[in-house]
Amino acid sequence: MEEEKEEEEEEEEEEEEVQPGFFQQLPKVVTKEVVRDFAADGVKYLELRSTPRDEPATGMTKRTYIDAILEGIRQCKEDELDIDVRFLVSVDRRAGPTVAKETVKLAEEFLLSTDGVVLGLDLSGNPMDTVGTFWSLFWKREKLV
Questions:
Q1: Strand order of the sheet with strand 84-92?
Q2: Which of 53, 113, 125, 137, by CA, is between 20 and 30 Å from 93?
Q3: Which tens digit of pLDDT belongs to each residue from 69-86?
């Protein structure tokens, strides 16, 4: 009986360690670590790319995912690291055209509002899959640049 109580207390302590918003902050933390590592290696210009994640179980949306990455980049700039960091929003072919259109729209919003930190789009996944479907998405957006 005493052992069960101790186990329950340990489980509660483990659950308490994960702060609300912890998962939403992971992209920022990872971004900062990656940027710091590249800066420490002497890299002067870095383009990061990532596919926006939507994780309903954690409360993370694609928008908060990108916001967290951009916050990590901003914090590194405030720390005066000697590296210029830019970001490409990645469209994963495997997610299909509907998700791709949503991602392109989201990228467009960030492209227009981040003073050049978001440079544009990256198309990831197997290049032999649905080339024509995705080409039209990018072709329509070329006027933004």
A1: 45-50, 84-92, 118-124
A2: 113
A3: 999 999 999 999 999 999
Least Cα distance to 124 among 102, 100, 93, 97 occurs for: 93
Task: Please say whether the beta carbons of 66 and 109 come within 8 A.
Answer: no
Give the dihedral of Cα atoms 59, 63, 69, 73; nearest 10 deg. -140
The whole model's pTM is what?
0.76
Instruction: Kindly report, residue by residue over 7-60, the tens digit of the pLDDT.
Output: 565 555 444 444 557 777 889 999 999 999 999 999 999 999 999 988 888 888
Question: Helix, strand, or coil here: 119?
Answer: strand
